[in-house]
Amino acid sequence: MFTHVTVGANDIEASRQFYDAALGALGIDPASGPDPKGRYWWRTPRGAFAVGKPIDGEPACHANGGTIGFAAADLEAVAAFQAAGIAAGGTAIEDPPGPRVGPFGTLNLAYLRDPSGNKICALHRVG
């Protein structure tokens, strides 16, 4: 459905280090860049994710109520994502990594805030 997702950051280098660690735990290669607009990109065959300063020159801020989910291979990858993200300057939020049962079945989840406050998660669908 999506071709790419971009989030704003005020400290691009801190964000690059955070996402290299957290996404690296999910098997995603380190960022390429910066591009001519100063953004870093993480690319997979299924889509791309970028971090950069807002093009309008205003400070970056996180979306209240927004979450970006990254696919994980298994529960171990979900936990590794959270551990790597915390070690690289992120903040753990919500429950510890693990299964949540809801209307979409059982999902293994871990939630973080990146250094700019963006809410992200790693998700593995069980079964």
Structure description:
It is built from 2 helices and 7 strands, in the order E-H-E-E-E-H-E-E-E. It starts with a strand and ends with a strand. Helices cover 20% and strands 38% of the residues. Helix 1 packs antiparallel against helix 2. A hairpin with a 2-residue loop joins strand 2 (40-44) and strand 3. The model has no long low-confidence stretch (mean pLDDT 95). The chain has a 4-stranded mixed sheet, covered by helices on one side. The radius of gyration is 14 Å and the shape is globular. The protein has one domain (4-54, 66-125): 2,3-Dihydroxybiphenyl 1,2-Dioxygenase, domain 1 (Roll), CATH 3.10.180. By secondary structure, the chain is an alpha/beta fold. The chain has helices at 12-24, 75-87; strands at residues 4-8, 40-44, 47-52, 68-71, 91-102, 105-113, 119-125.
Shape: globular
CATH fold-level label = 2,3-Dihydroxybiphenyl 1,2-Dioxygenase, domain 1
Architecture per CATH nomenclature, i.e. the level-2 architecture: Roll
Query: CATH H-level name... which superfamily?
Result: 2,3-Dihydroxybiphenyl 1,2-Dioxygenase, domain 1
| Whole-number mean pLDDT | 95
Low-confidence stretches: none
> Strand percentage, roughly?
35-45%
Instruction: State the separation between the terminal residues, measured CA to CA.
Output: 22 Å
Q: Sheet with the most strands?
A: 4 strands, mixed
Number of domains: 1
Q: What's the Cα radius of gyration? A: 14 Å
Strand order, sheet with most strands:
4-7-6-5
Strand and helix order: EHEEEHEEE
Number of alpha- plus pi-helical segments = 2
How many DSSP-defined strands? 7
